[in-house]
Amino acid sequence: MNSIDHRELVVVGHGMVGHRLVQTVRDRDPQGTWRITVLGEEGRPAYDRVALSSYVDGVSAEELTLPATPDPLVRLHLGDAVVEVDRDARLVRTASGRELRYDALVLATGSVPFVPPVAGRELPGCFVYRTLDDLDAITAAARDAMVAERPGRRSAVVVGGGLLGLEAARALRSLGLSPQVVEIAPRLMPVQVDEGGGALLRRLVENEDLAVRCGVSVTGIAEQRGRLVATLSDGIELDADVVVFSAGIRPADTLARAAGLPVGERGGVLVDNRCRTADEHVWAIGEVAALEGRTYGLVAPGYAMAEVVADRLLGGTATMTSAALDMSTQLKMLGVDVASFGDAHATTAGALEVVVNDPVAGSYAKLVVSDDAQTLLGGVLVGDASKYATLRPLVGAVLPADPVAMIAPGGVEIGADALPDTAQICSCNAVTKGAVCDAIGAGAHDVPAIKACTRAGTSCGSCVPVLKKLLAQAGVEQSTALCEHFTHSRAELFEIIAGTGIRTFSEVVEKHGTGRGCDICKPAVASILASLGGGHVHDGEQAALQDTNDHFLANLQRNGTYSVVPRIPGGEITPEGLIVIGEVARDFGLYTKITGGQRIDMFGARVEQLPAIWRRLVDAGFESGHAYGKALRTVKSCVGTTWCRYGQQDSVGLAVALELRYRGLRAPHKFKSGVSGCARECAEARSKDFGIIATEHGWNLYVGGNGGFTPRHAELLASDLDTDELVRVIDRFLMFYIRTADRLQRTAAWIEAMDGGLDHLRAVIVDDSLGICADLEAAMETHVAGYADEWRGVLDDPAKLERFVSFVNAPDAPDPTITFVTERGQPVPVPREPVAVGMPGVRR
Amino acid sequence: MTISISPTVTERDSAPTASPGPRWEAVCRYDRLLPERGVAALLGDVQVALFRTHDGTVHAIGNIDPFSGAAVLSRGIVGDRAGVATVASPVYKQAFDLVTGRCLDDPDVAVPTYPVRVADGLLEVGLP
Ligand code: SRM
Ligand SMILES: Cc1cc2nc3c(=O)[nH]c(=O)nc-3n(C[C@H](O)[C@H](O)[C@H](O)COP(=O)(O)OP(=O)(O)OC[C@H]3O[C@@H](n4cnc5c(N)ncnc54)[C@H](O)[C@@H]3O)c2cc1C
Ligand code: SF4
Ligand code: FES
Known about the structure:
Strand order of the largest sheet of chain A: 3-2-1-7-19
Largest sheet of chain B: 4 strands, antiparallel
InterPro entries (chain B): NirD (IPR017881), Rieske-like_NirD (IPR012748), Rieske_2Fe-2S (IPR017941), Rieske_2Fe-2S_sf (IPR036922)
Keywords (chain B): 2Fe-2S, Iron, Iron-sulfur, Metal-binding, Nitrate assimilation, Oxidoreductase
Order of helices and strands of chain B: EEEEEEEEEE
Shape of chain A: globular
Helix content of chain A: 25-40%
Protein name (chain B): Nitrite reductase small subunit NirD
Oligomer: heterodimer
Number of domains of chain B: 1
Region (Disordered) (chain B): 1-21
CATH class of chain B: Mainly Beta
CATH superfamily of chain B: Rieske [2Fe-2S] iron-sulphur domain
Shape of chain B: globular
Bound molecules: siroheme, flavin-adenine dinucleotide, iron/sulfur cluster, FE2/S2 (inorganic) cluster
Radius of gyration of chain B: 14 Å
Helix content of chain B: under 10%
Organism (chain B): Pseudonocardia xinjiangensis
Strand content of chain B: 35-45%
Number of strands of chain A: 38
């Protein structure tokens, strides 16, 4: 029975803002006053357009898709554009012939790229830069250019040197082309940056291998010998395989115009401060809306509009505020930081400008202040935008210090406490300091919790440093202490142990900690000692530090028995090997299973049986698989060129070599790898801590993948490496991880938490920005040279073997509490009520 | 090498003056115990977990982990919480007070404790 009378809300456009509207209405309308139908022209649900460029770096369309939960009150028709709005009948018609009646209609059609009317702009090879489909087309064209048989560089021309043009140029460079940026204005990013900042920006951009031509325009494009030639206003001709137009955007207002709705002078559907058009049933939000005549090309004002309309639809009285129309931007592409905020061009009457220009250090900063030098109005930062996060929220507020001191190198650090409560901390989501502080007061005690309850920090991420400062200021200690015995983080402890040469836990805890340690710090120190080449993990005092798995070199199961996992590098095993495993399992009555890691696990071994089991396995040439250790687990492989008709490289050979190279390497957490022979990715390498995918020319290396609790795809770190280069980068990657990650932090979380993220990681381990790569490689060589099988080490040492007894006074008596039943022909522990506990091993 | 073990005698360990008193059973040599590590002993059908802490003291508690039902407490990591000597269950990591048997993560749960003493280098456990 469906007795509720829904009202019909129709949304045109499923972009970022349309999506936000739908989410907000649904969040605030639990009774289901509105049933929502969304019509989207693009064939996919809303995605993060702000992060569009990350697509060429390997972030997938799925990852860019904005989160939405299935909802019976929301219908999404994708790939079906609205072609007509009939305001009298309150109907929309779509390209496919759908007709939908509405009680309220929201236009969220965004913008279309502006393509200047130059001859030849329709030629194949000319593109715009707005959608994932655009990027697919550009990628395909770039690939065709790369494989075409002719000498010389493959190049691209980008028409427009604004924020988007520079992003497009960087993306083209990632695709292997040499981009030239043509900007009609005398400087790059003319909207955001002033002349001084523009000059520095140009230098920094050119250092990144992008050619820049300012003050000229493209006057025509022609085809010549299968390539394009762009002619510039100064007569110069540029060869190009790809031309991308990025010369601005125009509101996608054709529907509204055809429906007779008033539009602004420069386009855009005219709306009042409630975002309502001249028709009381029709609203417009996002880039298509001309709010009091003006359009906004950023996502934050659009989100604010979505919130206002959602509120209005549910009977509220919200209006747009000027704070929500913040046009601040921060560009963190190309390794060049650029930020502009507030009245960057000092257009306010009487405004004063304070400039600190340091061409040597490559940084330029300008603050715009009121005529009495008391109030901050805006600013521009180029080269070093680290102060953006604290400066931007101060716009409109009284300056806490002398403006020069605030931007001078080594000047005043502005604390988050200087910000007024109304200061907008997160401009993407219009969250004020007051709202963040309220959330902290209500128990949000870390950044993820603040994100969850305020949305601050969930878009571009540039406000996260301020969120951390506010947490600190509220007295919420963001403790990095390992446990009650050490105030240090794992990384600090690593430095202490590596630096001081201390090699026992007793000495570490005596000199640098308190008490006698616990199940958190002892295994952490054991892992650090092992990473530093501490010999056998049971040598000396180390034995007492190990978790039960490492203590018995096997995985503890719920009934007190252990599982046995011999290493099967790359998943490749001989028939003889299979037979030995089968015989051992049969003779000791073990349950066998193929694991998710391409090897075989034998379960149900009692502690006193382990040595005899391993004696047989070691004699047959097997060694420990470290299934129990925070160490390398497996390197999965697919058959690659060995068998597969699509294979590009020998993926099995590489997987075996990598597994043998990194076996036994202890780390802050377990780590896994995979090698796929081609982009079909049968080894699921991109779900691994480091994954390798063969290309025609070599190997692509992806890092930071994770299955498990929080799945994440690995991201491309470096491409087309030869095997030696690949191994060198992985050596550095793993050693850098081992030295700096937190306890139980997988590589995915480690990279996520890293300041500067993947770019920083690449700088450190590919470009050697810290000058530590030689050191990291040497450390790995030490590990490789020092590797020895841990199980053989036990079998050869009577003192170590002595530990493998069931009872100290009855060494061979089986534990009477262990009993089995038979299930599907194999022994399994007696079933028992499941215990309600959290994720094993993730307790901090 | 001779071992003199005075610190192991705690109040709880001294022979009770009152009636029957525990039945002492030797389980192994004291030096078989590694510092800060446990062993299990089978006494009839009772499983006892024995631990030697860093100062040489020996403790005995029940070996069965009440949370998983597995007889594994002897295989946990020995340490301290705010100065209280503990072992952490290797299954779900709850900490148990080595002196009282109390679970520090769940006040409703405790494991039995047993008196221990060292006589002639031999470790003896007292059973009721
Ligand atoms: C045996 C196996 C399941 C199977 O029957 O297939 C398994 C079994 C266990 N997994 Fe796993 N995992 C197994 C493959 C996986 C995979 C798949 C893979 O490796 O391709 C994953 C997801 C991939 C990943 O790690 O990103 C996986 C994600 C986890 C996690 C979650 C990790 C995370 O980052 O969220 C845990 C918990 C932890 O480590 O903290 C875990 C923990 C465990 C533990 C150690 C739980 C425990 O403490 O008892 C289990 C011990 C098994 C044992 O005694 O051998 N296991 N586990 C697989 C052994 C693979 C091997 O050959 O070594
Ligand atoms: C490469 C790039 C980088 C950017 N970087 C930033 C940044 O760093 N910071 C920032 O704030 N902003 C940035 N932006 C701008 C930001 O993406 C936009 O402001 C935001 O996406 C606007 O959202 P919207 O919903 O109004 O429009 P869109 O996201 O464009 O969505 C409009 C949707 O409506 C659909 N549509 C149009 N007409 C119809 C029709 N007739 N029927 C059905 N559907 C229709 C379109 O296909 C589209 O999917 C960037 C944009 C790009 C392209
Ligand atoms: S950890 Fe969970 S998913 Fe993995 S084997 Fe155990 S029960 Fe299965
Ligand atoms: S400012 Fe972009 S996420 Fe907060």
